[in-house]
Design a protein that fits this description.
The protein is of the alpha/beta class. It contains twelve helices and 13 strands.
Length: 323
């Protein structure tokens, strides 16, 4: 099957950030689909048989127009829906800031949910949030833990907290103030470097994690993706994650120190100390790697089945799209 992989996550309401895991997810999906015998394509001109579209749950009008264009040419569409990450002074989830009214934004979200032949949502918490404000046809929704790149662990440097050059890599959509107050001045907090395209961003992420002593996942929304956390653990770095529901769904495992999203600076300081003292590489060596590899393959098989199902049933969605 020729599958159009399309990223519309840069087309969201103002004040919402693009999730940092998108490039990891898209690269892993492209590689995985190729291994399963599919042919990922980059443009509609390549005559795809199905579109797999990544979109924020608060899309812009032009993002909807792209999806509607696929529908107009009878191209089956699977929409992978991501929660927009707040930036700056963004309002709560029920009232995202935008040049459009809240009602207009909710209309756009509903239209996005109506257009897809299938909707992929990666966490139950995000699905609950969507269902609380919009009408969702549950027969079209699939919960799927998104695949992520299979990284080999990087070499652990084994430095102690407080030494010169010590690095904590901050990932996620939350505020860094508490984390900064928790760490001594000798500890440097970094963010991953921006990159022009998916592959470059994945490479930059890998380098940033490999250069860090600890990864801090600072959560601001409870539906944040788990891909950043899982990929950091796979790279052999200890992770402190202030995103309770993210770690609670699948990733309560060696190498992860879980914190509440409203953790104090004292809790952060203790958690970073604990993460630095853990032998993450040894914990990974004890892990059953064959089992983890099988789990990733199983998620890709599930994705493949969903894509085939969507392509086969796309005709059933014509009435809904025309509504």
């Amino acid at each position: 099957m020729r599958i159009l992989l399309q990223d519309l996550t840069d087309r969201g309401a103002p004040g919402l950030g693009r999730p940092g895991s998108i490039s990891l997810l898209r690269v892993a999906t492209g590689v995985g689909l190729t291994r399963f015998g599919h042919e990922p394509v980059e443009t509609v001109d390549d005559d795809p048989e199905l579109a797999l579209v990544d979109a924020l749950d608060v899309p812009t009008e032009d993002a909807l127009e792209v999806v509607e264009g696929h529908c107009d040419r009878s191209l089956p569409v699977v929409v992978r829906v991501h929660g927009g990450w707040r930036t700056g002074d963004a309002a709560p989830a029920t009232g995202h800031p935008s040049d459009a009214s809240v009602e207009e934004q909710q209309r756009r979200t509903q239209r996005l949910l109506d257009l897809g032949d299938r909707l992929l949502v990666s966490s139950r918490s995000h699905l609950v949030r969507l269902a609380g404000h919009h009408t969702i046809d549950t027969s079209r929704v699939k919960l799927l833990a998104p695949p992520h790149p299979g990284f080999a662990p990087a070499r652990v440097r084994g430095r102690r907290r407080g030494q010169a050059g010590h690095v904590v890599l901050a990932l996620g959509d939350g505020d860094l103030d508490v984390l900064q107050h928790a760490l001594p001045a000798t500890v440097r907090i970094t963010r991953p470097a921006a990159a022009p395209h998916d592959v470059a961003e994945v490479d930059a992420f890998r380098v940033a994690v490999a250069d860090a002593d600890v990864v801090a996942l600072v959560g601001g929304e409870i539906w944040s993706d788990r891909v950043l956390l899982q990929s950091s653990v796979d790279l052999g770095r200890p992770v402190v994650a202030a995103s309770g529901p993210v770690t609670g769904e699948e990733l309560a495992r060696p190498g992860v120190v879980a914190l509440a999203m409203d953790a104090t600076e004292y809790e952060w300081a203790d958690a970073v100390d604990s993460a630095l003292s853990s032998n993450t590489r040894a914990a990974l060596a004890r892990d059953d790697r064959a089992q983890r590899s099988t789990a990733l393959a199983e998620r890709m098989r599930r994705l493949t089945a969903i894509l085939f199902e969507s392509a086969a049933s796309a005709g059933d969605c014509s009435d809904r799209r025309a509504a």
